[in-house]
Specification:
heterodimer, A: alpha/beta, Rossmann fold, 7-stranded mixed beta sheet, 33% helix, B: mainly alpha, ABC transporter involved in vitamin B12 uptake, BtuC, 2 domains
């Protein structure tokens, strides 16, 4: 089936997630879709699969216009989406997962369905027993099950969203073989990825998205440099570095190891100097968020050390395995990206937040003192609101400033997830001014950002993450955008 | 078409909208709605509505005697409500309040049971019984909290389970070790008068328990509004994850809220023994635990607003007893009114939220 998306627009608040994207995929092609986080890939795929609706624009299947208002509609039209996280029911049997959501009526003929399932499996050399429970399957097998389910439901167009995350090398080889077979059968495949070599080996053409637009396409032979250039753009301004007290070591990370269900990070070693800013670059889910949370004491590393220098020569304390509150009390502060979920309490006022964040003196709250403190912080951090404003009444930028204003003094290490995501330029610059002040006071900053511009602009050194691996630290003033882009896309790792 | 219709609805629609979105008028509408439905229920029961209401008012506040009885019954309800303010603030549903009241009564009776015949002065025994009751309630609540924190058992199910256990334990005691001589009546022997809380002459009302209930309200209000503990508890209730990030030991705060809640529940239970019934008997908690949950909800978790609401609830209960005598209606009729009140207020609150909420972003499905 040929798929055509014409002039798709979609905004979330003030963000143009899809800014007039058009894309044409002919039956039998494997269309790669490449782009940074937030480039608009997922939004477009969700529109095609009916999870969200476009503000305007048309979807054409085999040349005729269709209206897709729900995932059920898209399945009926023959569009199937394989999500990054398996959308299945782990406590249920494989065969029941297949039957759920299919139009087989109240009393499905299980025997017949099992036979159809086995026949489908044979085509692709999968070996999943229909009677096992899904929670005993590997991520790769669950993905295979999902592909089979979509095919069984009659999908002619398959969307695969980052399908190689968390599966083994052999499963990946099998997946690619499957995708090629499906394309040969005449299905249209949309393969979303940020991994350059996967796109280059698999896809018969690739479209690159940036900031909600389709900025260009390419057919083999691919030029990696050109793809990177399209993904990230070329214009990057570098600021002069403001802090120069960077000879003292503040923290030393030694062979840190973190295990997660999906990702293993090991042998991470680097030093953090006083007053420096280290940017962590990489696609979301490459391991940078886990390192940040391990350094904050929120997740416990399974190996290695987090040494904090205590000023004496050769004196250091290992923080690995200590409680999060101990990290906090040592002046290590973490600012989560999910402000309203993890950082701030909806329903409490700004004044109440400030009262909570300060070191508690006595049992009773001194209302006047808190009021004074709140006024002070509100003007210091240029928050548009009053001490009585509840946190959810503030705009995103003001919430972010409030989060910064909650940090105690003095700070040794500041860990930030996406400090300026979703903020306008003015707010972003203000926040970085405040952060640089902290650096001048001797704090070190580590931050994650999916905005490569921000990483290069504000960092002294940059660490790149890919699939749980960490690059050596690059000097931000020497590294080129092409180098970073290739590493982020998984190229050039030895 | 659509715009035409809204224009036509214009004036009246706007007034209705304002009435429904204003907090005060919305509650008034809820109460009226509950009264209208009650009226209908009364008609279905083939009773004269006006007479029903007049009996209820007379029976609850119509005479000094009725008023003291209402106040007496108000004490355990308001104590239980006070306790629940802690767990509500921490975002927890302490359904186990009934069991906590029962354990309070059991422990209080136990102390007096074993002190009877010793030379301990009455006031010492009463004090010890109250403390034992508080401890009993607190331990019972603490266990629900432990199950929630370390066993992953939702406090609603944990609380229900412990209610049943407390019930069974009480029955065992009443029909077993603490059975009075003679035929089992589902009640223990009455405690000696020296262990009774001093009562106002000619009434059941004890100024001691009434005074402690008032102190309880003030303490709870103060702790929740004026202290760091209260503020942290509120933060934990609204967002445990962010509270933890801010350095609040969330599980310890949740456990503490259970313990504090149990203290109040246990005290209410001990007063049931020393201040009112003077025996330990089947369902000694009198349903105050469940009723207090409704009061707490209606009061929007504000202790001071809970005071008049719990008064109205007990007045309804007391007033309804007259219906049995005069009109041969069931006493549970007050439960119908209370239930209707809660449902109507929550419903109108839901309507208000829905009308004031502006839908933003994507709607799925």
């Amino acid at each position: 089936m040929d798929v055509e998306l014409v002039n798709i627009y979609k905004t979330f608040g003030r963000v143009h997630a899809n800014d007039g994207i058009s894309l044409k995929v002919k039956s039998g092609t494997i269309q790669g879709i490449l782009g940074e986080n937030g480039a608009g890939k997922s939004t477009l795929m969700k529109i095609l699969s009916g999870f969200i609706q476009a503000d305007s624009g048309d979807i054409l299947l085999d040349g005729s216009k269709v209206v897709i208002q729900s995932p059920a509609d898209s399945v009926k039209l023959g569009i199937g989406m394989l999500h990054q996280d398996p959308q299945d029911f782990p406590p249920m049997k494989v065969i029941d997962n297949l039957i759920i959501g299919s139009p087989v009526g109240l009393f499905p003929n299980r025997k017949k369905i099992i036979k159809q399932f086995e026949e489908l499996q044979k085509q692709f050399n999968f070996a999943i027993s229909p009677d096992t429970y899904v929670d005993t399957l590997t991520v790769g097998e669950r993905q295979q099950l999902e592909i089979l389910r979509l095919l069984w439901l009659g999908a002619e167009v398959l969307i695969l969203d980052e399908p190689t995350t968390g599966i083994s090398a052999s499963q990946k080889a099998l997946l690619f073989e499957t995708i090629r077979k499906l394309a040969a059968q005449g299905k249209a495949i949309l393969f979303v990825s940020h991994k350059l070599d996967e796109i280059e080996t698999l896809c018969s053409q690739v479209a690159v998205f940036r900031q909600g637009k389709n900025v260009g396409s390419m057919v083999p032979p691919y030029s990696t440099e050109h793809l990177v250039e399209m993904m990230f753009g070329k214009t990057i301004a570098r600021s002069e570095k403001t802090c120069d007290t960077q000879d003292q070591i503040n923290f030393e990370i030694d062979k840190l190891k973190i295990d997660d269900r999906r990702l293993v990070i090991k042998d991470v070693s680097f030093q953090i100097r006083r007053g420096e800013v280290i940017g962590l670059a990489g696609m979301e889910g490459s391991g940078q968020a886990m390192i940040l949370r391990a350094l904050a004491g929120i997740i416990r590393p399974t190996g290695g050390h987090i040494y904090m220098m205590d000023g004496k020569p050769d004196g250091r304390v290992d923080l690995a395995g200590k409680h999060y509150f101990q990290f906090r009390n040592l002046g290590i502060s973490f600012l989560p990206a999910a402000r309203l979920e993890e950082g701030l309490v909806q329903g409490l006022s700004l004044a109440e937040h400030f009262a909570l964040a300060e070191k508690q003196e006595g049992f009773l709250i001194d209302r006047e003192e808190v009021e004074k403190l709140s006024q002070q912080r509100i003007s210091d951090f240029n928050i548009r609101g009053t001490p009585e404003s509840r946190i959810e009444e503030l705009s995103g930028g003001n919430q972010q400033r409030a989060e910064l204003a909650l940090m105690r003094n003095p700070l040794r290490l500041l860990l930030l997830e996406h400090p300026t995501r979703g903020l306008d330029i003015e707010s972003s610059m203000y926040i970085w001014t405040k952060l640089k002040q902290r650096c001048a006071e001797g704090a070190s900053i580590l931050f994650i950002s999916s905005d490569l511009d921000e990483v290069v602009h504000y960092s002294d050194r940059i660490l790149v993450f890919f699939g749980g691996r960490v690059s050596p630290a690059f000097d931000a003033s020497l590294v080129t955008i092409d180098q970073l882009g290739q590493l982020i896309g998984g190229k050039g790792w030895s | 078409m659509v715009s035409n219709r809204t224009e036509k609805a214009g004036g009246f629609g706007n007034i209705l909208r304002t009435l429904l979105t204003n907090r005060f008028s919305s509650i008034t509408i809820a109460v009226l709605l509950a009264l209208i439905i009650t009226w209908l229920v009364v008609l279905v029961m083939d009773a004269p509505p006006l007479r029903v209401f007049s009996i209820m008012v007379n029976g609850s506040v119509g005479s000094l005697d009725a008023a003291t009885q209402t106040l007496q019954a108000w004490v355990p309800l308001v104590l239980a409500t006070c306790g629940l303010m802690f767990t509500f603030t921490a975002g927890l549903w302490n359904i186990g309040m009934e069991g906590q009241i029962e354990m309070g009564a059991i422990c209080a009776y136990g102390v007096i049971h074993y002190m009877t015949g010793t030379p301990t002065p009455g006031y010492v025994a009463i004090t010890l019984a109250s403390l034992a009751g508080m401890a009993g309630g607190a331990i019972w609540a603490y266990m629900v909290g432990l199950l929630k924190n370390y066993g992953g058992v939702n406090e609603i199910f944990g609380g229900l389970g412990f209610n049943f256990i407390a019930d069974a334990f009480l029955l065992y005691l009443v029909y077993g070790p603490w059975k009075p001589e003679g035929v089992a009546q589902g009640s223990t022997k009455m405690i000696d008068a020296q262990y009774w809380l001093p009562q106002l002459p000619g009434s059941y009302l004890s100024l001691w328990s009434l005074g402690l209930a008032i102190v309880g309200i003030l303490v709870v209000t103060f702790v929740l509004k004026g202290t760091y503990f209260g503020l942290k508890l509120k933060a934990v209730g609204k967002n445990p994850k962010a509270s933890f990030m801010m350095g609040i030991p969330t599980s310890r705060y949740m456990l503490l809220s259970f313990v504090l809640c149990g203290l109040f529940g246990g005290l209410a239970g001990s007063f049931q023994v020393t201040g009112f019934l003077h025996v330990l008997r089947n369902s000694i908690s009198g349903g105050y635990g469940y009723l207090a949950l409704m009061v707490g909800m209606l009061a929007n978790y504000q202790p001071l607003i809970g005071v008049p609401i719990s008064l109205i609830f007990t007045a309804l209960n007391k007033g309804a007893t007259g219906l049995v005598i005069d009109l041969q209606l069931d006493t549970n009729f007050s439960g119908v009114i209370q239930g209707l009140l809660v449902l109507c207020v929550l419903l109108m609150d839901g309507v208000r939220r829905r009308l004031t909420k502006t839908f933003r972003g994507v709607q799925h499905g």
